[in-house]
Amino acid sequence: MTNVNEARSLGFFLLSVLVLFLSIIYITQATSIGDSVTVTGALTVSGATTLNGNGTLGDTATDVFNFVGILQASSTLNVTGTSRFVGSVGVGTSTSMTSGVVLGLHGAATTTLTLGTDSTTGGSCIQMDGTDGAIYRIYAAATTSVTKQLVIENGPCN
Fold this sequence. Notes:
With about 160 residues, the protein is of the alpha+beta class. It has one helix at about 1-30; strands spanning about 125-130, 135-140, 150-155. The protein has a 3-stranded antiparallel beta sheet, with no helix packed on it.
């Protein structure tokens, strides 16, 4: 009988070790963390990520966040401070970003749309498609320091 009791005890011991081992593996494969997490250095996440609740990116005005690909807001994108877009900016309806484009500016007082350039000799230009199919441009021109004019003419902006 002693051998049978020892065999049972050894069997229960091995079974307990196996259960403990499998429990540790299961716990280390958990997909959620209940408390705050701090990461120093780089954090790389592969695959789709869902973040729920409020969040803050950065702690100073000089922090930079690079988005490669499309940054999409399914509701409202609120930007406080100056926004700078390098390249194309598409403002469109819910069905298209290239046709039926709508741009609305609204303010309680004077609403200003500023088109500028970093060049001292360059200017800004607004290009539009006419109802006749032609392309038109609008730009400000100065032939002298006194003579200034707003030019509307046929042709694309260069």
